[in-house]
Amino acid sequence: MMLEKVKTKKQDFKRYRGLISEVLFAEVKKLARKLRDLKVVHVNSTPEGGGVAEILKTLVPLMENVGLCAEWYTIPGDEEFFDKKFLHDSLQGAKKNIPDDFFDYYLSHLENIAKLFNDIKADVWVIHDPQPAGLIKFVPHMHPAISRFHIDTSSPNKKTFDFFLPILEAYDKIIFSAEDFACKEIPKDKINIFQPAIDPFSLKNKTMSSTQIKTILKKLGINSKKPLISQISRFDLWKDPLGVLKAYKIAKKKVPELQLVLAGIFLAKDDPGSEKMYKEIKKRTIKEKDVFLFGEPKTTKGIDVDIFVNVIQRASNVVLQKSIKEGFGLTVTEAMWKGKVVIGGNIGGIKKQIKNEENGFLVKSPEETAKKIIKIIEDKKLRRKIGRKARESVKENFLMSRLLRDYLSLFREIM
Ligand code: UDP
Fold it and tell me: Please, is 267 exposed, middle or buried when counting C-beta atoms within 10 Å of its C-beta (0-12, 13-18, 19+)?
């Protein structure tokens, strides 16, 4: 078993000059000067797939670029260890208790791999999400340490939460994405709230010409002249792809040409369960010629996944993120940055990203989703107005420069 040191592409913080406020730009530079050569080690469970990897891909090299020494490692584990139906779902509130032997297995696996960290030294550790969190028990030099929980822990399964509480208490600081995800049992001065952010310059978010978009849509068999809605998300129960399908079927009665893309390319090694959900959706849409499913990597016809996501979001008239639980939907921010109207589930982190009727829409049911889809598709003016607001709000709050600042100030506080 090995730790994987994840290689990232170089970043240049100077590119943010002009895009973000001078105040924020100067603040980052000042903090970074004081933290020069600080060794920061990030640990998570997968080098690709899902929001955490997406953030680290940019955040780690940005930290490097401003003068820190940042590294990123992913831990090894088998399907059972990473199975999202255990820790992830349970901490997000799944009612069914995890069997005791899973907790034993979780601890013994982390105890086993703890030795892989013997030669890794850091001035500060950032451990992302529950899978590697328990390492703190077995790696004595893992201090000062920050636990970064990206999931919605506002109403966790009690048994699982009780198991995690002493683990969280062993950390010096804990970061959640929203105030209501932080549990009362943890002292307030240990808690920090950081909202996730996106990289505006990445392949996934950079500007694309309409010709490029049309060419790629054609290759994928999607008609660029017909209206399109999409949800780009792992095929996971909490993301509610079945609810999206239901909403689509209702809306299609009013907008007969409507097309739907459901994409969740299987990339994450910590998400072995999503193929099952994908198969279920495939079964239900076999006769729907205007529904396009993307799961297996080969379905994107050789198009880079980031470009694929970029194109689908830009080509959509409406982007959906109809989650039932969500720590923070990066996909919501990615689409809003592209000036898209997003209809999101009225829950968790999405409520912090979308202000209903102002820069997007929040919904509770497939029926409500369908109504909004129809309304937005029929009203171009509304689409433009909301889309403009959506982009502005991302520029102000959800770009990586702000998240970098949040981390740097926390490191200053700890050091
Ligand atoms: N994503 C992707 N390909 C897919 C589906 C999702 O690259 O087929 C990306 C998506 O663009 C986003 C991340 O995976 O950057 C998902 O992050 P989010 O916070 O929305 O959800 P999570 O998967 O972390 O629960």
Answer: middle
**Which residue from 19, 48, 126 is spatially nearest to 309, judged by alpha carbons?**
48
**pLDDT given for residue 184 in this prediction:** 87
Q: Which atom of ligand 1 is closest in space to residue 234's alpha carbon?
A: 5
Say if CB 4 and CB 47 are below 8 A apart: yes
pTM of full prediction above 0.70? yes
Residue 273 has pLDDT above 90, yes or no: no
Give the position, in ligand 1's atom list, of the atom nearest the Cα of 306. Answer: 7
Give distance in angstroms: CA of 117 to centre of ligand 1. 28
Peptide bond before residue 196 is cis, with ω within 30 degrees of 0: no
CA distance 305 to 311: 10
DSSP 190: G
Q: Are 224 and 315 in contact (CB under 8 A)?
A: yes
Hey, what are 42's tokens? 């990030």
**Residue 297 CA to ligand 1 centre (angstroms):** 14
Question: Is-contact 81 131, C-beta < 8 A?
Answer: yes
